[in-house]
């Protein structure tokens, strides 16, 4: 009889971070500047893991990832956008947004805790150049910047050249037809032009793909991935589609689609060792459940509210009034863990979105 090894969250997360860093080093071997930076970041990542280990010895679990939505503004109106559906992204002039100085304090505190990946999102993060410049001041942390790519300019290119810890992640949906259909006519050509500019300067960048039942074959196809690698892309982050309406639920993965996609992911990793492939939320069975609410990451919205996840925009604490570590002990986060909602059975890719009525009930209590 085989005895199953108990799941150890700290070991799982540390191994995951190490695999990402190793993959990034391998993917940048042909570019001395990028490879040199990734080697130095690997050392910083090891120190960060040590800090998290020290906190763990004190009974404090610190996740390695933080998602920071630094603005509620965006210059596009993409169909099916979860940020617009939950009104965290609006057309009105943003108000009560955290300042660049406040974000810098958050980034520095995160570094001291051992958080070494901070994903910058929005809205459109390129609209807040002041915050991205603040992120450049924390070189020990890697800042993937999830952007629609339409606002890349000479100033940003120079910033990325000087500060290699800032890595644009361009959102693309597949081919020209699929991308323009979701993001607006002409977006695909502007994206490819932005990637070409990054390639000419030997700057590291990746892509983010919202993967659905409709585009899953396209975005894992040899043609699509060969096009990306030809443009110099080094990372592909697949984000499972979370339905924002009942009408779009057919676009979300079920168990069969997810099993198919996991097989495809293993295949493309073998075919394209020059790129790092990451799936989010990925296989929750292997990670012991959803990694939101501080298990593997948490989210800070543009107003400072600490939320379990961008897809679960509920908060009962604000980092303007407290520390990051205290935010991880918010009542909402604590109850989500205590009631095992993060490990509950569910159909879609996001348990907290699917069970949002339960989350709202917990918040109201």
Structure, described:
By secondary structure, the protein is of the alpha/beta class. The chain contains 15 helices and nine strands. The radius of gyration is 19 Å and the shape is globular.
Number of strands: 9
Pick out the low-confidence regions.
none
Count up the helices. Answer: 15
The overall pLDDT average reads 88
**Gap between N and C termini:** 45 Å
Strand content: 5-15%
Order of helices and strands: HHEHHEHEHEHHEHHEHEEEHHHH
Structural class label: alpha/beta
Radius of gyration: 19 Å
Shape: globular
Short synopsis of the structure:
The chain is 43% helix and 12% strand.
Please describe the topology of this protein.
Layout: H1 9-27, H2 32-57, E1 65-69, H3 82-85, H4 100-113, E2 117-121, H5 129-135, E3 143-147, H6 154-162, E4 166-171, H7 176-183, H8 187-200, E5 206-211, H9 216-219, H10 222-230, E6 235-240, H11 255-271, E7 276-280, E8 297-300, E9 306-307, H12 324-327, H13 331-338, H14 351-354, H15 356-364
Parallel strand pairs: 1-2, 1-8, 3-4, 4-5, 5-6, 6-7
Antiparallel strand pairs: 8-9
Task: Describe this protein with a few key phrases.
single chain; 365 residues; five-stranded parallel β-sheet; four-stranded mixed β-sheet; 9 strands
